[in-house]
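#onboarding

Welcome to the new folks! Below is a worked example of what a typical request in this channel looks like: someone posts a single protein sequence, and someone else replies with the predicted structure as tokens. Don't worry about understanding the tokens yet, we'll cover that in week two.

Example request:
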Amino acid sequence: MPVIETRSLTKRFESLVAVDALDLAVDEGEIFGLLGPNGAGKTTTLMMLTTLVRPTVGSATIAGFDIARQPAEVRKSIGVVFQDPSSDDILTGYENLKVHGMLYRMPPALRERRIGEVLELVELTGRQDDLVRKYSGGMRRRLELARGLMHDPRVLFLDEPTLGLDPQSREKLWEYIENLARVKRITVIITTHYMEEVDRLCDRMAIMDEGKIRALDTPAALKRVIGGDVVHLRVAAPDVEALARLPFVQRVEARDRVLDLTVTDASAHLQELLQAAGRVEAVEVHSPTLDDVFLHFTGRAIREGSAEGGWAERMMHHR
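Example response:
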């Protein structure tokens, strides 16, 4: 039985359909990536799954509990790490974790044991008595991951978990996340704009657009959908029809003076391709990436920020 399951999950805001009949199943121990352009519906989906917003139509369960009928049980089953820092920087790391345990009404003995366990997991035991304001960005993200794990959740939601971190801190956090899924069997849901993060961590990923899931599979399988090499051309006066007639060109999309093409064996046909394109100002050839997959299914490049944003802010206001 899936740990997360949605059935025709829908949310409308007056005339706007933010999430449209979402059907999704995520298994225990799976790392699942949820991606989408601005306004795609991913933040609204997360807010419904974390019981902050009630669905208009449809239903969903987390660890067997219904998000509408059993919200308290759902909240006990989930942990959340916000995109924006939410730990109290006038408290120590230990005090932040203690307050979190008290909010979840954990018995004192269990609370102290869990504080020790999660501090050891994220390698902050030696800094537990320092004020959070003295932590580096990477240390603070690790503390917030520890806090999300304090009450031993079945599901962990990570909203842009490594945004703004240096490469070394990002790599370390990736190791913690992988360990949670592989060893602890915690189901992890990630929203991110880092395609490298999805490629490294996610067992499966879903691309949302206009409230619907446009693609769902493993990162490797979705890259195979592109089927060929990817060529980006900047052309002064592009002749799209001439390029589309070439037998080795599978797809042509024009964005102003930039052409995105999928080409069979681009190295063998590049010269012919350039001759047909006209006056080429720049050319780039590479194997398909998740950025190309995203562009293929949504017609736009993924970019940082979200028109739906403010998830952490809404949650704190809700509480």
